[in-house]
Amino acid sequence: MPAILLIVKHRASLPDRIKDALKRQFLDRGIDIVHQPEEAEELIGIVVLGGDGTLLRSAPLAYRLDVPLLGVNLGKLGFLTEVTEEEAEKAFEDLALGRAAIEERLLLEVQHGEETFLALNEAAILKGPLGHMIHIRVNYGARLLSIYHGDGLIISTPTGSTAYNLSAGGPIVHPQCDAIILTPICPFMLSARPIVISPQEELRASLLYKAQEVHLIVDGYVNRTLSLEEEVVIKKAPGALKLVRSPTRDYFEILRAKLGWAARNV
User: Fold this and answer.
1) 22 CB burial (10 A radius; 0-12, 13-18, 19+)
2) Most buried one in 184, 213, 231, 239, CB count within 10 A?
3) Catalytic residue (choose from 16, 20, 28, 52)
C-alpha cells in the first residue's frame, strides 16, 4: 500500500483545512499516512507541516530514502516550506498523483571526526559568545583558498543562500546553480568578501590557532565543538534532494514576497 510520511512541527496545531486536505488527497485515494518510515510498504513522499527548521531536520531522511519532500509553511517566513496553507491541497493532490513539480537541490556532506552530517542550508564555523577572533584556514582540494580572520565562516548551498548566508551579507544564488558559497562573518579585513566556487573539489577547514570556544553548526540543529587538531571536510553530496515546489508560484515570485521586493508594472 502506498503511503506518505507525515512530519509535524512539535506542538503545532493543524488547521482544519490541512486535516481535511490530507484526508481527501491521501486517505480517500488509498494512500496511507504514517509517522515512521518503517510503517510504510511503499513510501511515495514525505510531507512536512511546520517551518524551515522542521524541514531541515527532515531533509537528510528524504535524501536517504530518495523520495520527494513537500513542506507546508505553518509559520511566518518559510523559504524552504514554500507551499502555503492555501496551496496545500493542490500540492497534496499533485504528490498523490505523481505529478508534483520537483526541484533537485544540492546538499553538503560535512565530516567532523567520525561523524558525517548532511546540510541543505549550510555549515558554519563560529566563535563562542565569549571567545576572541578566530582564524580559519580553508583549502580547496590541494590548494589554499584563504585564511579568514573574524567571528567565523559560513559555507552555504544555493538553497541556503537565503538563510544565514544572506544575513551575513552573502549573495543570493539561484537554487539550481551548482555552487558553494563561502561568506566570512564580521571579518577583520574588509577585503575578505564572499566567494562563490564550484563544488567539484572538497573544502577542508581548520583552525590556525587555539581558540577558547569554537563551534561547528550544521543547518542550525547540529552543534559540535571544534578543536585546533580537528579538520572539517565539506563536499557536495552525491545525488540530490527532491524538493517539491509551490504548485502556483515560481522562485522569483516567492523571493519577491519573502524579501519584500516591490514588483512594478513596466
Assistant:
1) buried
2) 184
3) 52
Q: How far apart are CA 72 and CA 84, in angstroms?
A: 6
CATH for 108-236, among 3.10.50.40, 2.60.200.30, 3.40.190.10, 3.40.640.10? Answer: 2.60.200.30
Report percent pLDDT > 70 for the chain: 98
| β-bridge pairing 115-119 and 32-34 | unpaired
**Mean pLDDT in residue range 148-174:** 97
Check pLDDT > 80 for residue 159. yes
How does strand 42-50 pair with strand 69-73? Answer: parallel
Tell me the CATH number for domain 2-105+240-259: 3.40.50.10330
Main-chain dihedrals φ then ψ at residue 4, nearest 5 degrees: -115, 150
Number of helices and strands in the chain (H, E): 5, 18
Kindly state the greatest CA–CA separation across the chain.
61
- Please say if 66 is a catalytic residue: no
Over 70: is that where the pLDDT of 263 sits? Answer: no
23-40: b (≥16 Cβ within 10 Å) or e = eebbeeeebbeeeeeeeb
Which of helix, strand or coil describes residue 39?
A: helix
pLDDT in tens, 89-135: 999 999 999 999 999 999 999 999 999 999 999 999 999 887 789 99
Q: Under a CB-based contact definition with an 8 Å cutoff, are residues 126 and 232 in contact?
A: no
